[in-house]
Amino acid sequence: MTRFRLAALTLILCVLTGVIAGQAQGEVYRAAFSANGYTLIVEVLDDDLAHFELAVTPEGATTLDAPIATSLMIAKTDYPGATSLEFPSTDVIQTPEMRIEVDSAALCVTVTDRTREPELTLTTICPLEDDGALNGLSFAQMGTTDIYGLGERFRARGGTDGTWMGERRMPGNQYGNAQTGFNGGNVANAQFPILYALGEGTNNYAAFIDSVAPLGWAFTADPFTMMTRVVPLRWYVMTGSDLRDLRADYMELTGVPPVPPQQMFGLWLSEYGYDNWDELLYVLDSMREENFPLDGFVLDLLWFGGIETGASQMGALAWDEGAFPEPAAMIAQLRDEYGIGIMTIEEPYVSETARGYADALAAGVLVPQCDGCDPVRFDEWWGIGSMVDFTNPDAAAWWHDQRRQHLIDAGVMAHWTDLGEPEDYDPSGYYYGGADHASVHNLYNLYWSRSVWEGYQRSAVERRPFVMSRSGTSGSQRYGVAMWSGDIAANLASLSEQMNVQMQMSLSGIDYFGSDVGGFFRQGIDPILGMDGLYTLWYANSALTDVPLRPHTFNVQNFYATAPTLVGDLASNCANTILRYELSPYLYTLAHRAYQFSEPAFPPLVYYFQDDAAARTIGSQKMIGSQMMMAVLTDYTPEATTVYLPSGGWFNYRTGEFYESTGSSIEVAPTVERTAQAPLFVRDGAVIPLMRVDDMTLNTLGQRTDGTIDNSIVFAVYHAAQDGSFTLIEDDGETMAYQDGAIRETRVDHQASEGAITVTVNPASGTYDGAPTERDLEIRLISPMPVSQVLINGEAMPRMTADSGYGWMIRSDGTVIVLAGVVPVDQALTITFVE
Question: Is pTM, for the whole model, over 0.90?
Answer without folding.
Answer: yes
